Amino acid sequence: MLFKIGSLLMTPAARYGLLALAILFPFLASNEYQVYVMASAFVWAIAVYGLNIITGFCGQLNLAHGGFFAIGAYTLGLLTADHGWSFWPAFLAALLMTAALGFLVGVVSLRLKEHYFAIFTLCVGFIIYLLIDKWEELTHGPIGVRDIAAPYGFGLVDFTETTPFYYLVLAFLVLAIWFMGRLSRSLLGRTFIAIRNGDELAESLGINLMRNKVLAFVLSTTYAGLAGALYAGMVRFIGPEEANITHTFDMITYLLVGGIGTITGPLLGTVGIVWITQSLQFLEEYRMIIFGPLLVVLVIFFPRGITGQFLSWMHHKAQAMQPRHKARASKVTAPQEARNNA
């Protein structure tokens, strides 16, 4: 029901309106830094959409999601900076690498359930961080990777500049949201939701749990790798902190605030929190004193996130309107029936 009502949020008029606003944003921004911040928010939103597949749709809390983001970033960074690859072949390699590693980790970890799965993936995320930080021969260790190649442009388009790269990220975000919408309405998406509602129920319906969970995990990690590769091409320098577990918890926060298991939630939560934290930058280390309680208030009063709470309100409103429509219909049909009987 929530997905059916949620489609109201993404009517053609609403979609085109949001897309037009995103396209015009560089012209409305007061400086280039704001364009950069929005591009960064879009990159993280892509990663959060990946987390939404495995956690929001399938009900599996993957705490290694930030690690796969870092794998995508490092794959592109190392191939371009150390081995002379151009951006797009390295970009494709980053997607394949995160998908392959996602498959291997998923096959092992998804045999576990609930908090055991979460703890296992937390360990996987920490192992990824340690490998990136300590394996200096491959990853350069704490020094990080510099001089990462940016996407090569065409004609007058130069992706080393902020605004063209913003539009490139926007294009990938639109593609990610489009795929998420198609997935939510497909048989595969409904299969994921059935698994989220209960393994026993899903098995009783003839669903292959392991195969579908692994597929959801691979799709999720591919989204993370896509975001990580775009991030590396945008900042042109990455370090071990990209694999820090705090990034995973940041993405979980974005998802919870926006609305877990919804289509617009990851975008609203990510963009909203990124801009709130940016607006509190002037407070420096004290900004978390304000942001922390604000986040607690949001979780208390909007437990389903902003989008989820709105969808629930729409659902209750639709249910409340049904008796009124029935009463009006009965008032109209009663006189008509009386005339027919006469």
Walk me through this protein's architecture.
The chain is mostly helical. The protein has a single domain (2-341), classed as ABC transporter involved in vitamin B12 uptake, BtuC. It has 15 helices and no strands. Residues 1-8 have low confidence and may be disordered. Pfam families: BPD_transp_2. Keywords: Cell membrane, Membrane, Transmembrane, Transmembrane helix. InterPro entries: ABC_transp_permease (IPR001851), LivM-like (IPR043428). It is a multi-pass membrane protein. This is Branched-chain amino acid ABC transporter permease.
In short:
With about 350 residues, the protein is an all-alpha fold. The chain has one domain: ABC transporter involved in vitamin B12 uptake, BtuC (Orthogonal Bundle).
Structural class designation: mainly alpha
Uncertain runs with pLDDT below 50, 5 residues or more? 1-8
Estimate percent helicity. Answer: over 70%
Radius of gyration: 23 Å
Would you list the SSEs in sequence order as H and E? Answer: HHHHHHHHHHHHHHH
Query: What's the rounded overall pLDDT mean?
Result: 84
Identify the CATH architecture: Orthogonal Bundle
And the CATH topology?
ABC transporter involved in vitamin B12 uptake, BtuC
